[in-house]
Amino acid sequence: MDVNGIRNAINVNNAYNNTGDDNVAADNIKTSDVKQTDKTDINDQNKNPIDKKELDKAMNYLNKFLEPEKTHAEYSIHKDLGTMIIKIVDDKTKETVLEAPPKKILDMIASLLREDGLLDKKV
Asked: What predicted TM-score, i.e. pTM, was given to this entire model?
């Protein structure tokens, strides 16, 4: 599972809280600052467990960061691959502004894997 975006949001907040400066440079952000303890699966399909509390905390930080832009973040787990999908949604129009990784790409990968017999329907 790729949670680098969420980790970066946590680190941006940590860097901001430590400096008190609104202009935190991306160079100061370290993914090693994020600690994962008490790991539990979010989804049975998930191969890389992540702490649900840590994920919720990261989403809260990310949403606070996005407030001035009138957007918010949502996450979901791809049903076939178990990959986390992060969406940035416009609050007013409810339109998806950004999706990483794109669900269409994950659907295409799952379809190719299914055709080659590499993806079980149980997964």
From this structure: 0.57
